[in-house]
């Protein structure tokens, strides 16, 4: 807190001493047709607050030079297209800011009603359950520390479980049900210390300064995406600066590092970001040992070569390494059930070719490889060391991926997405799980897993977007997927529609089937597991969207998800395997597990048109499952209700305050069986009361202050954030303390000050 007070004093003093000279920056970008990616010329590009602008050239490019530093909104307008407004265009001293416009064709105007400028992204492919965020909205969000996953915690679709985790629990689902795409390349996990077979982790990998915008699809998504039950996150990386070399040094919650970008030829540019955690070095400096200090880092890069405005080739790399080695004493002090060594490596490397063939046709084609390596040895904390690990994990995962997505517009009313995606998987396992007891106290034998699995996945899709008449549009999609490991072929029909009551209000609906293959880590543990059916979910969504003003919208949606074919264990009839642990000894699994999730969500979102922005949301939902015992139970992430308020105010062009407050119902838990835990010297839960109790309700407030300094040739951003500002003690879990033979409480983050510094040169 003393450091934060010093930083606040520096901010005030720097504001007084900062040069009064008028600093300038530049604004550049490209304007394209939102459906076909075709460059649009003669588009009027205007900085609203300054009433200065230019027209895009024949390549769709525009340049506005010598713009005073500050925060602006940029409008894009041309006859025949829906006007678009992009907020949060931050102009910095002697730097170039890139803002692209994606304009949607405008239908014939309804007589007597003028067309409003679009502040919110709209697509014909998906009419429901979609939210978009810009780079600046992610960067400044309180409680996110620039982490793209944590900003989603303010949405009603995402359950609130634990501050220490980035897990996205979407509409009563599970972290394994999500996937991420960066520039048409699938990234299985965007977090450090990834959860194997799933999408979660504690700390994000992606550098927010690479991100142009993010679109989060939380249900009813298009047929162009498959093999996921709940959500798809689409992330667009910007290109590096093609005109000059820029650099940036960062210091924040995730670590310290830098960004370097610039032209590599007349037609190409590149950018590279590196980051390293710093906690280990602080502990080394004060000489208190390193056993409690996780260490991690990442490298991200993008190289772009533009043959012409219609053809571009880009190369993407995202790599991360994670290391942790808590000793037995430290594990006991921090309520950890296991200690040992952990070395993890994950990387995705890929090419994407964007080709605009003509004014009505374009395609995106990517070829990528993802590699993951898990080297882990864990020992039980409250057990005499034997030198033999209780859990050994030596996993090597490789996936070669090809994806082709095409769009063809046949007429003003009819368009079509179509394409294929294919994967070749090779997973090598050399794993061991010592004899132990499961969560309900039953003895399970040791598990030795030595296997090499090779499999192929192939999918094809088509999606037709048709405007039946002026106010009514539909999307009809179909996916077919094949998985060679179990010879499963699935068919996934999807349908969505939108009816415009008027220019400001629309009714939206969708229904569809979504299949997903089970994780190979689970399928490989028993030969019979490979015969399990693929789980699937049927989504039913209906909603209404209303523009209260040009920059404010209200969305109300109701949904239901019916799940089938989930794996369940007859020896643990009340346990839902997917919510428990993938790597466990399941002697014989069945695929007749079911689940059900339904709820109502409300979102009120205001874009930064003037000085105030915000997002308020609320939801009430239920998420349940039925195991082998035939009894419906609450799932582990069932908050039931969540209320979130997030927003900010720009005091001056360079000074901004923001906050986020979340209140959520406590999630279910199974009480600990004290007698059995004492007898087994490890936690044993009461199988007669599975998920019958609930943790106390969760609530917390995060506040943040951002200050920008614009110097003659450089820029500085300093932000101070306080997580859980009023120091609420939210319980993370009830823990079996075998040393004291008691049930103890483990808390989520209490008051946590965060400092961030970004220096641009």
Task: Provide a descriptive summary of the structure in words.
The chain is mostly beta strands and 761 residues long. The chain folds into two domains: 2-103, Carboxypeptidase-like, regulatory domain (Immunoglobulin-like, Sandwich); 130-760, Beta Barrel (Maltoporin, Chain A), CATH 2.40.170.20. It is 7% helix and 54% strand. The strands form eight sheets. The protein has a 22-stranded antiparallel barrel. It has a five-stranded mixed beta sheet with strand order 9-14-15-10-11. Strand 36 (641-652) and strand 37 form a beta hairpin. It is globular and about 75 Å long. The chain starts with a helix and ends with a strand. Mean pLDDT is 88; it is low at 110-115 and 287-291.
